[in-house]
Known about the structure:
Elements: H1 11-25, E1 32-36, E2 40-41, H2 48-56, E3 60-67, E4 73-74, E5 78-82, H3 84-95, H4 103-120, E6 125-129, H5 131-137, H6 140-146, H7 155-158, H8 163-166, H9 168-174, E7 180-181, H10 182-186, H11 204-219
Parallel strand pairs: 3-6
Antiparallel strand pairs: 1-5, 2-7, 3-4, 3-5
Helix pairs in contact: 3-4
Amino acid sequence: MLYLRRSNIGLDFGAWRDGLAAVLADGAEPQELLLANDSVVGPLARLGPLVERWRAGGEGFFGMTESLAGGVHLQSYLLLGRGKAAIADMAAHLAAFTDVRNKWPVVQSGEIALTRRMMRAGHRCAALFGYARLCALARPSDFAALGARFNRENSLCVYPLNPTHHFWQLLLERTDFPFLKTDLIARNAGRLPGVERWRDFLGAEDVALIDEHLRRRTAG
């Protein structure tokens, strides 16, 4: 077990950069690399079967969900690299990451740029809960709740959604997606309808754990 104490800068990508550098310096030659951050609560469903579905895809770069905002990319709260070549390119991207304190520059230079790098390098890149799949699962009522502009043809490409926010209920009800975004249920800055009912979709034990987590988070 390796513990790394560092300054809290660079958000998740800065932490992954420093942590992976320490692991590789210790002589490790990983065949899989799992990157995770604390922007989600869960798991609310079994992770084992989902990881096996990732592994069934062979070598490459895999995520849970993808976004079209800023360009197609895998969302970085949980990412898996498989195979030496994919991990080497992930490591090179992280090693070149420069610390910034604001979230959007991290999304651009970390999250979006990482997927672009992996695609350019020819690695297989895929999401278990892909954007097109979720749009196909959505019902007219789901789109109506998001506003009139989403009733237009091709609107989901013109106005790309964040699936972990806009489709949170769909993900919980109609898939085995295992997470909720913490900032969605804590703040709901986009004022999405119905988010206040998130507890209705979970078991009592999960609700109690999440409420305690949110309480501790608010307390600082």
